[in-house]
Amino acid sequence: MVAAERGMIMFAAAKEISSLDEAERQFQEAAAVLKKDAEGGKVKVLVDENHIGSKKQARGIEPVAGAVNRMQQVTQSNAEELSGQAETLPN
Question: What is the pTM of this model?
């Protein structure tokens, strides 16, 4: 994987995490409004279920971000190793 591709993957993962954080914040604001205005317990149950789903989604992106980070580390290590080997080659 070339550095540009790796960078694009990392950028996309970071953007996704940021988007999930923003969605979570908006959800919390909407949930607060709905909880204040809700009549009966049905809306609260739905809001709570949605909140649980949102948290599961946010946790689901963590392994992706970890994998991207590990790929970056391996790529960096490979680049350093190849650079060292290239220096030992005769001109």
Answer: 0.42
